[in-house]
Amino acid sequence: VWEEPILHVDMDSFFVEVERLADPTLRGIPVAVGGTGPRGVIASASYEARAFGVRSAQPTAMALQACPGLRVVPSDHGRYAEVSIRVFELLRSFTPMVEGLSVDEAFLDVSGLRRHHRSPVEVGEDIRAGIRSELGLPSSVGVAATKLMAKLASESAKPDGLRHVPRSGQVEFLHSLPASVLPGVGPATQAALAKLGVETVSDLAQVPPATMERSLGRAMGRQLAGLAAGIDNRKVEPDSEAKSLSVEETFDLDLEGVEVIGSALLALAHRLSVRLRRSGLSGRTVTLKVRFGDFRTVTRSRTIEGPVDGWRDLSRIAGELLAELDAIEPVRLLGLAATTLEPSSRPRQLDIDSSQGWDRVEDAVFEVRSRYGERAIRPARLLDEDG
Ligand SMILES: [Mg+2]
Fold it and tell me: Fewest Cβ atoms closer than 10 Å to its Cβ: which of 154, 268, 281, 330?
């Protein structure tokens, strides 16, 4: 099991770097993207500009005072959104467990990638290399055990770097930072903390809980005390489009007969299993969709106790759901979805009538298929049709 499976991926000066792709004369000089009118505000500043004190949210006039050579480029949010979509597509090609925070920032839970990568750090480096080679953009990645630590790690890795904070070193890393890095610490809280003599997270950790609650209020005081100790139980919540994996097929000729429909379902279960295993995910809910010859469409779902990712389980559940439908033919379309996804945990828990032997078979099948391709091994029942 990976100890630090949470990644925070953050693009470096995103708007500026997208502008630099279109106009290479912007490279290596102080550049900001933002409003150029009298009331304009900076949206993003290059690192060369930051060295002069240029910051996002700063009025453009003030930024030009701080950095007279600053090139200010008007923002083109349509283009940033297009590039953002490509960044997120790339992230989701690693795992569906991607939680977007803004156009250029996301948390990933890469627990499911243990079969494909040696470590979360390797995943992070592959992501950075992919963003660099496919989009031509720099990014930074933090690798840690929790969201908070991953975010702080990527911040300290910037620009164009990766930082791994091992679980055993996270308190030490956290305590070296100013208290203002903690989520929820705005200017008002910062002022209250300053009165307590708190500058760093380390100072914060030494304030007695009662004192903290008295000066910051109970909720905030408790939250900060927990964060200062590195406690953060927030999970990566994948964006809605990634919450399920599904496969479906519309047949050229309507399917008739329990055997034929059963075989088609088995093939779908198989495809779904491949997709789940490739992503390292299991689903707790299996949904069957059936469209009949007359276009009537019904869905049936079942939530199971232990999450599944194998075709044997998926096709059994799909078959049971199919049996619940009264009239089952002719069938025009079949779909199968796994939802309530979570990273697959291996080794799995043992059931009484353990399917562990089948797990091994399925694992072996999976390995062969990922090496030799989809069609290398399939359930014997499918071979009759086209194998
Ligand atoms: Mg960013």
Answer: 330
